[in-house]
Write a structure and sequence with these properties.
The chain is an alpha/beta fold. The chain is built from 7 helices and 10 strands. The model has no long low-confidence stretch (mean pLDDT 97). Bound molecules: 2-phosphoglycolic acid (PGA).
């Protein structure tokens, strides 16, 4: 894994946006694996700036998002569909039919998970996967557990994740308790991975991901086995290294 430590969140966001933009320049029909949460907000803001400067186009880009809360409608303001429109899709020339996010309202969840895996396969796999990391070491919503869950699946969110994400809701009771998430194999199949972490709250997870043993108790540790990962962190997230 290639570790890059930058000063602060602003620098991290610019650097991450440059990496995504250069992927699009090198391959205009790139398949981008995208993430939500507070960490990539600055990255998307910087990417929109680069788009507005006329340096990149999303007209041939395909996106595959990591996850969606189970039970939330696309138009719910807390949904990841909504997040992606707010922070990226509404501001660039991406085609609606090229946007993929799990359907949080799917009635047949197993069929939805299969549909999602089929999409990843049909587009030829993910060229560059953007990831955040949870304080508990999760990637996507692959929570710490007894084994690595391979494919897209329904997840019971841990108390820790529900608490961490409660800041986006008016009360912790409103946080959905389940999500549909790409699995570890779906993520590890990406040709390149860019993982972002910012702030001291993430320092423990970053340390375990990079220096700890590979274990499903720290899902991100599996990235040690991937041949092309850039871990881009600010000084806070690197403070235990
Ligand atoms: P955050 O979430 O960017 O909101 O900290 C990251 C994650 O939980 O994967």
């Amino acid at each position: 894994m290639h570790l890059e430590i930058v000063k602060d969140y602003e620098t991290l966001s610019k650097r991450a946006a440059y990496i995504l933009a250069s992927q699009i320049i090198l391959k205009p029909a790139s398949v981008l694996g995208l993430a939500t949460g507070s960490t990539p907000v600055g990255t998307y803001r910087e990417l929109v700036k680069i788009y507005n400067e006329g340096l990149i186009s999303f007209s041939r880009v395909i996106t595959i998002n990591l996850d969606e809360y189970y039970g939330l409608d696309k138009d719910d303001e807390q949904s990841y569909h909504y997040f992606m429109r707010e922070h990226l899709f509404n501001h660039v020339d991406i085609k609606d039919e090229n946007i993929n996010i799990p359907d949080g309202k799917a009635v047949d969840v197993e069929a939805e998970c299969r549909r999602y895996e089929n999409i990843i396969e049909a587009v030829g796999g993910i060229d560059l996967q953007l990831l955040g990391i949870g304080q508990n070491g999760h990637i996507g919503f692959n929570e710490p557990g007894e084994h690595f869950e391979a494919l897209t699946h329904l997840v019971d969110l841990t108390e820790n994740t529900i608490k961490a994400n409660a800041r986006f809701f008016s009360s912790p009771e409103e946080v959905p308790t389940q999500a549909i998430s790409m699995g570890i194999k779906s993520i590890m199949g990406a040709k390149k991975i860019l993982l972002l972490a910012s702030g001291e709250k993430k320092a423990g997870a970053v340390y375990k991901m990079l220096k700890g043993k590979i274990t499903p108790q720290v899902p991100a540790s599996v990235l040690q086995m991937h041949p092309d990962v850039v871990v881009l962190v600010d000084e806070g997230a690197a403070s235990l290294l």
